[in-house]
């Protein structure tokens, strides 16, 4: 049995609580938030507290609060030498107060409070300062069905950065697709199956192998037509920059792939 | 029964042939390609030809060849006044020779030859010059299980352009995610569930509502950190431009959404 205390009551904390509750070998001892309001609905299932002085003993303390509040909250914890982890991709493990055993339990996924989340599709990136603390975090992740990966700080940092590209920036491209289609009274809904298929394709194939379209084909006529249709200057800039980026990746028609491409363009190669 | 002749043997032609073959009320009379080699494997199922002079009568002739070859091929067809359509998002309906009844049967999806494709997730955008020709194309699409949409030329043009954003450009963002993670020996595979979830989210929620992250939050500290990690100048430019684009869409922290945002940010509104 692994005993856990959750601190914070946002998206991540709430999803973790629900997953831990279902897991057989995890017990959540207490749930802390600075204000009780958000966690009141759970008061029959779990001891809820808003006073750090009431914290009891547990194997792991999970700080799932806003990035900026992690350091301070860890400092305020009224004990030492216990395992305290945060759940952030962008905050250092050393930002946790040094009186604790320290680690990171970073779920590489996008959470919304109301949407259900199956932790099978939430890879947990684990980092600990002391090797010995790794195994309990791994066991915790496995108990909720998550794939796990041991990462160092540099790796976690680039994963968090890459997540911005494939999540936030991709979502903004969807948004631009929305604006463009609606501008002519066409339906964004028509693009939804394509959006899904594009994401599914790279589950099997590398993005390098999956690429198609006018940029890759150096189809100047179509590119020119598209730039003429775009009225928003920023959309034009994005079109040009991403077209150039695709052409850099795939080389000219005469072929000039960089080493990275040569090494990674194999379709189903496990990376 | 609708009788069809397919011209061309690439990705689209092949997927259409397979779907038509399964449909109850469609019969494919002949399959033409300039070279027989690609369609040889189908010769027991269907009459294959490489000579336009051998073409027989049919209700619809579907030209699914490279964009640049559509006009010429339509001109070479040895008959007139029959319904001839192409399958391109980027080619005008008037590019088909005017001796024919003309239309477009544009599948808004990304096809690869070896991957299976369920036409339920292939919206067919239909355009015809003569209203009377619309219904047979709609019946054709319905027979293979596709959702259909009547579009005009301007709408088809912007759908094709938007498809470049949500398919080719999005895929390039995946590619950049791949490069960034591998540069630190982190695994791109860890990002795959996030990629899928990002695409799934906008099936229900508008991209406006689905947005999160440092750009939207105007989290200057994280943005600065990320720009410092990025070594590739082009990746930096893409990061900056898409961050600015997100901030334009979502306004400053004091809030300044444009009319488009006000009208379209409702979560589940059917667009
Ligand atoms: N959301 C995601 O998709 C996601 C994914 C991976 C990792 N993460 C990481 O997980 C952590 C939590 O993110 P989230 O999205 O769950 O956040 P969130 O939904 O915005 O919730 C933030 C939580 O932090 C608490 N909080 C904020 N400032 C505080 C302070 N000064 N002192 C004490 N508590 C404070 C809030 O308390 P109140 O309820 O009282 O306001 C709330 O419970 C962050 O480190 C984030 O980087 C998030
Ligand atoms: N692929 C997609 O995801 C997709 C999606 C929606 C719409 N479309 C549209 O569908 C059409 C076909 O695309 P595709 O991807 O199926 O193409 P593709 O796989 O590249 O195949 C092209 C086909 O066109 C033939 N062809 C090329 N030049 C020709 C010429 N000068 N004369 C006669 N035939 C010629 C080729 O014949 P050989 O076999 O002899 O080379 C081949 O059968 C295009 O208009 C495209 O814009 C494609």
TrEMBL record, chains A, B:
SUPFAM superfamilies: 6-phosphogluconate dehydrogenase C-terminal domain-like, NAD(P)-binding Rossmann-fold domains
Chain ranges of the Pyrroline-5-carboxylate reductase catalytic N-terminal domain: 4-87
Coiled coil location: none
Highest rank taxon of the organism: Bacteria
Region (Disordered): 250-271
InterPro entries referenced in this protein's UniProt entry, alphabetically: 6-PGluconate_DH-like_C_sf, DUF2520, NAD(P)-bd_dom_sf, P5C_Rdtase_cat_N, TM1727-like_C_sf
Pfam family, one: DUF2520
Domain DUF2520: 122-246
Skewed-composition ranges (Polar residues): 250-261
PANTHER family xref list: CONSERVED HYPOTHETICAL ALANINE AND LEUCINE RICH PROTEIN
Protein's recorded name: Rossmann-like and DUF2520 domain-containing protein
Organism: Hwangdonia seohaensis
């Amino acid at each position: 049995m692994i005993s856990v205390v959750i601190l914070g009551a946002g998206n991540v904390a709430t999803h973790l609580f629900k997953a831990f509750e279902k897991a057989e070998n995890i017990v959540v001892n207490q749930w802390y938030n600075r204000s009780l309001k958000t966690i009141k609905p759970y008061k029959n299932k779990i001891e809820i507290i808003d006073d750090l002085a009431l914290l009891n003993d547990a194997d792991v303390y999970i700080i799932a609060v806003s990035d900026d509040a992690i350091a301070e909250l860890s400092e305020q914890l009224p004990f030492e030498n216990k395992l305290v982890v945060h759940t952030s991709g962008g905050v250092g493990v050393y930002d946790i107060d040094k009186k604790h055993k320290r680690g990171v339990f970073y779920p590489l996924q996008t959470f919304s409070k109301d949407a259900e989340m199956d932790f099978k599709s939430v890879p947990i990136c684990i980092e600990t300062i002391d090797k010995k603390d790794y195994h309990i975090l791994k066991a915790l992740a496995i108990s909720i069905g998550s794939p796990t990966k041991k990462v160092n700080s540099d790796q976690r940092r680039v994963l968090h950065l890459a997540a911005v590209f494939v999540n936030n920036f991709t979502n903004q491209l969807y948004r631009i697709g929305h604006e463009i289609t609606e501008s002519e009274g066409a339906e964004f809904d028509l693009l939804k199956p394509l959006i899904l298929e594009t994401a599914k394709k790279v589950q099997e194939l590398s993005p390098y192998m999956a690429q198609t379209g006018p940029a890759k084909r150096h189809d100047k006529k179509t590119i020119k037509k598209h730039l003429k249709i775009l009225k928003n200057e920023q959309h034009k800039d994005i079109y040009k920059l991403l077209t150039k980026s695709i052409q850099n990746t795939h080389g000219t028609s005469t072929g000039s792939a960089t080493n990275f491409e040569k090494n990674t363009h194999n379709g189903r190669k496990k990376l």
